[in-house]
Each structure stands twice: as structure tokens, then as C-alpha cells.
Specification:
Largest interface: A-B, 26 and 26 residues
Structural class of chain A: alpha/beta
Number of helices of chain A: 5
Distance between the termini of chain A: 14 Å
Radius of gyration of chain A: 16 Å
Number of domains of chain A: 1
Oligomer: homodimer
CATH topology of chain A: Maf protein
Shape of chain A: globular
Helix content of chain A: 25-40%
């Protein structure tokens, strides 16, 4: 199985959850526009399979983001562009006029089989956007996302986040599928 | 010249500005993620040229969006996803916590020549986001964008908008290039 990622830490985390060998492919695949990480991850896995010359292997890609309920799921897969423009302080400013602060951290793993068929596995963690940024660990929206299973932000949780994160949930769902196959 | 659009009204408007024959190609090209319409338009034109089988013609695509200064240009080319999720009322709510309401309407026309070289032409209209939606005409952010050359929103301006819109400015810049070539 080939995992499209340039992040060695992520490759190890996913290999540990899946319990299979994972070859990392650090490809520069342009991501398609969309809110749902499932569409973006599936397009990424299909484009990577083509870039790799249609190998006789499973090609795995993932995409993630935070879906804000008051914004009907926005920014989702576009989270990195919002944060790249305004940072977490900007996100807090944009949400300041909304009462409902609930949100979901979402990750989708997409696998393309050698025959071209695509399977997606979704991991969601409901939670809320904190009133202010807290914690030194993590990246992206980690300092402002409080999963429902804790009172701390993802950034405050540090490594503990990985035990039951949206990414862990997506790849655990995928492990169940692997075990059945 | 082939113009990648499914919008006959837009094709006519652009043909009128450019003064050349334009064949419309209604292709379903997935747009790449990005804030700058120039990157998205160029990628669209290149992908369309490939989808059309590398014709001996110029391939033209455009992309546009509103760049909010307080958000460092966000959402730009991603405007349609923000509006598709929250509408103009949501955009106003997200901006309610920011004092600076200045924004730019931006359009970029990208042309790929038969030899594969790309030219981009940018049209920008500075202005601001109005406190509330006004006007029945237009679409997208038209009801909340007030160009600096008027006190009315794009939606209130109706057809008058086209006289000096971001799109008109981009294609006028392109016409200058065509006349020189």
C-alpha cells in the first residue's frame, strides 16, 4: 500500500493504526476545491494513482478539516486556506458573531484499489471552537478545537489527542475493512 | 480562441470586450484549491487544453472572487464555497467582528497558447462590503459589494456593473495584449 504523504510522522501514526506496511509517496498533487474531505481525498488518491503510473498496489490518501456547524460545514477541506490567510485568531474573529460554536473535526481516508475502485473511511470528532486559543502543541486549528471527550483543546492534549482523534477514527474504520478483506 | 465556460451570457460579454470570435467549451474541469484567482484560472486553462486534446488554438479560462482585506485576501478564488455554505448573510456575520470592511473584486483571465505558454490578465475593483445586502440583480456577493466608483452595490447597479467590473477590467487588459500581438 502506498500512502500519499510527505509527513513521516503521519505515515508512522497511520502504519501503527493499520498494522500494514506503508510506502510513503511524497507527491505534489494539486487538491480540488470542495468542502467535504471525502471528495478531496478521493480525487487526491485517484490523481496520485495516475501520477504513479497505475501501480499494482492500493493507493491511500487522506484529507481533513474542521466543519463549523453555524457555517453549514464550512471551511471543511478548505480549512488550511482560511487558517493560512487569517490564522486561528482570524477564525475566532469570524465566529464571534455566531452563538453556536459547535464543530466537527473530520478526516477521510480514501483508498484506490488496483482495479480503480475507491473506498472512503470517515472519522469525525464532534466538539466546539473554544473562546480563545489554548495550548502549545499541535498545528492548524488544534489550539481552538475542544473534542467532546475532553475539556482541553487538541493543542493542550498533545500526544493524547492521537488516541481518539478524527484521524485515528478514520483509519480505525479502514482497519476494520482491511481485516474483513 | 476557445473560452472555457458554460455561461452563454458570459461568453457574449467577453466576446464583446475582446472583439474576437470565441468558441465556448462547457467542460467540467475540477478547480484547484487556492486563494489567488490567477493560479486557479491558469490551472483551469491548462487542464482544459489537455481535455480538448491540445488544440491549435488559444484556450481561455477565467476565475474570480472577492478578496477581503481584513482577512488578507480570503476567500478570493474560494468565494463560491463560502457563499455556497453560508450565503451573503453568513459572510456579513463573519465580517461583523472586523472594523475594516474594504475588499477587492478580482477577476483573472488566463490564456494558454498552442505552444503551452500561459498569460494572465488581472482585473481588480477596490471597494467595500456593505453593512447589509442591497439590490435584486446579480449573484454571488453582488448584493454586498460596493465598488469604489459607486455608492450602490453590484446587485443594485445591474447591467451598469458590467461597464467597469473586475471582469471587464481583466478582459480589457487582455484586449490590449491581443491588439499588440
Amino acid at each position: 500500500m502506498v500512502f500519499v504523504t510527505g509527513n513521516e510522522h503521519k505515515r508512522r501514526e497511520v502504519r501503527e493504526i493499520l498494522g500494514v506496511e506503508l510506502e510513503a509517496a511524497d507527491l505534489d498533487i494539486p487538491e480540488v476545491q470542495g468542502i467535504d474531505p471525502a471528495e478531496v481525498a478521493a480525487a487526491k488518491a485517484l490523481a496520485a494513482r495516475e501520477a504513479l503510473g497505475f501501480p499494482e498496489a492500493y493507493v491511500l490518501a487522506e484529507d481533513s478539516g474542521v466543519m463549523v456547524e453555524a457555517w453549514n460545514g464550512f471551511p471543511g477541506a478548505l480549512t488550511k486556506w482560511l487558517l493560512g490567510s487569517v490564522g486561528v485568531e482570524g477564525l475566532l474573529g469570524m465566529l464571534s458573531g455566531f452563538e453556536d460554536r459547535s464543530a466537527r473535526a473530520v478526516c477521510v481516508a480514501a483508498v484506490v484499489a488496483p482495479d480503480g475502485s475507491v473506498e472512503t473511511f470517515r472519522g469525525e470528532v464532534p466538539g466546539e471552537i473554544s473562546p480563545e486559543a489554548r495550548g502549545e502543541g499541535g498545528f492548524g486549528y488544534d489550539p481552538v478545537f475542544v473534542p467532546e471527550w475532553s475539556a482541553r483543546t487538541y493543542a493542550e492534549l498533545g500526544e493524547e489527542k492521537n488516541k481518539d482523534s478524527h484521524r485515528a477514527r478514520a483509519f480505525r474504520a479502514m482497519r476494520g475493512w482491511l481485516e474483513e478483506a
